[in-house]
Amino acid sequence: MSYLSQITSPTLLIDEAICRNNLQKMANKAKKHGLKLIPHFKTGQSKAIGKWAKEYGITEITVSSIKMAKYFCQDGWENIHIAFPFNPLEIETLQELTKENKISIQLVNEEVAESLNKSLTSSIEFFIEIDAGYGRTGVEATDFGTIEKILRKAKERDKLIFKGFYIHAGHSYYEKDISKIYEETRLALNMLKTKYSSEYPNLVTRIGDTPGCSTMDDFGDIDEVGPGNFVFYDITQARIGSCQKSDIAVALAAPVVDIKKDKKTILVHAGGVHLAKDVLMESDGSKNFGEIVILNENGWTIPESRSFVKSISQEHGIIQASEELLEKIKVGDLLGILPVHSCMTADCMKSYLSLDGKWVDHAESVH
Question: What is each CA distance from 21 to 223, 233, 247, in whole angstroms?
């Protein structure tokens, strides 16, 4: 039975072959540069995708919350790193997980280090998160005072084990000069490694953004990479040059419910609750919430003339349609939408339908 015959409402499709190819390419790149690949699973949030990743030599993963860490525990990972400033209200849960799983965390201030010191009954490794210009979170690379307060607090007991420095250069998603950002990242991590390696000879440095990991070919003496979005990619990544549209591994199947040929628009059941509301701007100032692909028995094809979702509400999506698309599509058909931000779309949809008609798990699965 065709996977298409199973779809009656918005459904997130996953192309396993594309996803595996993305995993293999990143694993090959990491190996080429002598880097350890520890992918961020906040994108796929799937044990099934985790099994695929293991086939390419991936043994450790990154997550964004202790809840997500718990979902992946007991799944054979050598370590699960929580790449979010640790929330001291979750110390009890952390201790429960570390009884049978190796977990590492991130610290950005002395206060949380002190809370952990007072409460931990077993040892845990931690990174200090560094802000190298993104401005979202982390200790500034030159704020040695804060860094050393965290390290001194960790030394008071043997429960906090310093692992190294972590940078997520998130501004690589919207700054044009990715190479400049990476030069700043490399310099910051090199400076910190040089300053602290005599005291901590085994410290490692890790970067975590997909644009840099996908496009750069000089990682200096960085030790580890932890990109996430690369498993699926999306329209944003394609626009900034991290991938081609053919590398995007997920598409939202959306039912066509109305067509207005005079306005060159198509109404689909696909809104903010399905795609999320991440948006790109077109050259003429119009909004783009996702680009249209044509679904078929083997997945989807990218049409020669581009159509895109120009507006969304909670459940509605309005497509600015090309003449080619208007000629092909009728009410009751299904269209595919390549997401602007695949991480958010996957989180909205909470499950995937594979091209062989099987449901693929998600941490918040409804199937």
Answer: 23, 12, 8
DSSP string, 45-110: --HHHHHHHHTTT--EEEESSHHHHHHHTTS--SEEEEEEE--GGGHHHHHHHTTTS-EEEEE-SH
Tell me the torsion sign for CA atoms 302, 20, 252, 281. negative
Look up residue 338 and give its two tokens: 């390549």
**In this structure, is the dihedral angle defined by the CA atoms of residues 293, 295, 299 and 302, taken in order, positive or negative?**
negative
What is the predicted pLDDT for the residue at 215?
Answer: 86
Question: Which of 17, 55, 1, 18 lies closest to 247, judged by CA?
Answer: 18
Assign 42 to helix, strand or coil.
Answer: coil
Neighbours of 131 (CB within 10 A): 19
Q: Record the pTM.
A: 0.94
DSSP-assigned states of every residue in 244-298: -GGG--EEEEEEEEEEETTTTEEEEE--HHHH-S--EE-TTS-EESEEEEEEETT
| DSSP state letter for 40 | B
In this structure, what token pair is assigned to residue 71?
Answer: 């979902």
The architecture of the domain spanning 17-233 is: Alpha-Beta Barrel (3.20)
Cα 71 vs. chain centroid, distance in angstroms? 16
CATH tag for 3-12+244-360 (out of 2.40.37.20, 2.40.100.10, 3.40.50.300, 3.40.50.720)? 2.40.37.20
What residue spans define the domains of the chain? 3-12+244-360, 17-233
Residue bearing tokens 């949809």: 349
Name the pLDDT band for 181 (thresholds 50, 70, 90). Answer: confident
User: Which candidate, 137, 31, 120, places its Cα nearest to that of 84?
Assistant: 137
| Domains 3-12+244-360 and 17-233 in one fold | no
